[in-house]
């Protein structure tokens, strides 16, 4: 704490909170990228939730 | 300066991520996710699990966005009502402008993404739902008429229609019935709350039914709406999503809901005050269990059919 004050880099509660918020926003953005990637892959494939139905239809 | 920045609830401070999340009314969002999920799963057309998951996420975010817009518009009365005083805006954690930005931003994002992930019919219905809740209900009806939640309830009823539309790209009798169940369920559910929170609404000058028409009339209306709900709740048994299992359970659940509504309709404010609104609180809880159980039953019935137990009635 004392050293922090000396070199002017004391971490305030404000900084902690902002850091937490930035990490969370970063996490959301990352999740969004994963989501878009996943949907793209899924839409390119032809797997469906009821594979037996799809199989039946294709026969 | 440092001490001013290490703040408490009374002084303004930077919002945390959780404060923004709270703007989305996570508890309401969970009901939206669940009913949209049921609509999606019981639909006769298969959807890729990941696309289905991503689409439901869009519906949840759209619902959250409309909740943020609701909190932005209602910040003045949320400040007065005990039930809503701890929300992010009245407690000073988020500014009104931030709530508006979150609401508008997520609305556009969720509708556009749902259109791309699933289809534009479901995206269109989601856009209409957000508009209906934020503008028709929150800005227009809520402070104007005691019928506010009767009409506004439609906003909360759309998710199963959206879920069904995600899978099929269409609207059907089955999805309309699921819509009607939530639509007719909303008045008795909300009026039970409005009776035991009546003071809040009086203070905030919101014309909820008990404020505008009195509690005696509200109690009668709770009963009649529950009676009207009963055949609608049983009707899906005779469609493609229903069957014998659903018929038996929906009748049992309806009897449970009717019993609670009957008790509330037969008593007056003196009796309610004497036991601290026990029957009204119970009706509120029963209504939540009822809706959750009814949609779970639709889900189980669908699973039974998939597993080959064809207890169908039609």
Overall description:
The complex is a heterodimer of chains A (59) and B (314). With 59 residues, chain A is an all-alpha fold. Chain A has one domain. The model of chain A has no long low-confidence stretch (mean pLDDT 74). Chain A has 3 helices and no strands. The N and C termini of chain A lie far apart (72 Å). The longest helix of chain A has 32 residues. With 314 residues, chain B is mainly alpha-helical. Chain B folds into 2 domains: 156 residues, Orthogonal Bundle (Tetracycline Repressor, domain 2); 143 residues. Chain B has 16 helices and no strands. In chain B, helix 6 packs antiparallel against helix 7. The N terminus of chain B is likely disordered. The interface between A and B is medium-sized, with 24 and 19 residues.
Q: Indicate the CATH class of the largest domain in chain B.
A: Mainly Alpha
* Gross morphology of chain B: flat
Please name the CATH architecture of the largest domain in chain B. Answer: Orthogonal Bundle
Shape of chain A: rod-shaped
Strand percentage of chain B lies at under 5%
Quick check: average pLDDT of chain B?
91
Question: How many individual β-strands of chain B?
Answer: 0
Major β-sheet annotation of chain B: none
**Average pLDDT metric of chain A:** 74
Oligomeric category? heterodimer
Backbone structural class of chain B: mainly alpha
Class per helix and strand makeup of chain A: mainly alpha
Beta-strand level of the residues of chain A, as a percent range?
under 5%
Radius of gyration of chain B, taken over Cα atoms and rounded to an integer in Å: 21 Å
């Amino acid at each position: 704490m004392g050293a922090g004050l000396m070199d002017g880099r004391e971490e305030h509660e404000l900084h902690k909170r902002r850091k937490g918020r930035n990490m969370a926003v970063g996490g959301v953005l990352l999740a969004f990228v994963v989501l878009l990637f996943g949907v793209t892959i899924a839409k390119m494939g032809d797997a469906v939730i009821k594979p037996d139905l799809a199989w039946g239809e294709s026969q | 300066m440092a001490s001013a920045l290490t703040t408490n609830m009374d002084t303004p401070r930077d919002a945390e991520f959780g404060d923004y999340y709270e703007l989305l009314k996570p508890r309401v969002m969970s009901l939206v996710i669940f009913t949209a999920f049921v609509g999606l799963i019981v639909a006769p057309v298969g959807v890729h699990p990941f696309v289905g998951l991503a689409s439901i996420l869009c519906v949840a975010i759209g619902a959250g966005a409309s909740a943020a817009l609701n909190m932005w518009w209602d910040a003045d009365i949320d400040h007065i009502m005990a039930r809503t005083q701890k929300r992010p805006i009245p407690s000073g954690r988020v500014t009104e402008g931030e709530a508006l930005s979150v609401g508008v931003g997520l609305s556009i994002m969720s509708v556009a993404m749902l259109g791309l992930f699933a289809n534009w019919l479901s995206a269109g219905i989601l856009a209409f739902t957000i508009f209906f809740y934020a503008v028709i209900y929150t800005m227009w009806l809520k402070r104007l008429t005691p019928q506010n939640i009767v009409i506004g309830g439609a906003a909360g009823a759309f998710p199963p229609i959206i879920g069904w539309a995600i899978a099929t790209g269409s609207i059907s009798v089955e999805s309309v019935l699921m819509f009607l169940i939530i639509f007719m369920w909303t008045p008795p559910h909300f009026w039970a709350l409005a009776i035991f929170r009546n003071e809040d609404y009086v203070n905030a000058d919101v014309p909820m039914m008990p404020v505008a028409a009195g509690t005696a009339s509200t109690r009668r209306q709770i009963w009649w709406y529950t009676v009207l709900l009963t055949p609608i709740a049983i009707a899906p048994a005779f469609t493609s999503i229903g069957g014998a299992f659903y018929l038996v359970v929906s009748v049992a659940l309806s009897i449970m809901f009717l019993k609670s509504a009957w008790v509330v309709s037969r008593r007056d404010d003196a009796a309610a005050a004497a036991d601290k609104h026990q029957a009204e609180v119970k009706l509120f809880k029963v209504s939540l269990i009822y809706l959750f159980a009814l949609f779970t039953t639709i889900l189980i019935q669908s699973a039974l059919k998939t597993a080959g137990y064809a207890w169908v009635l039609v």
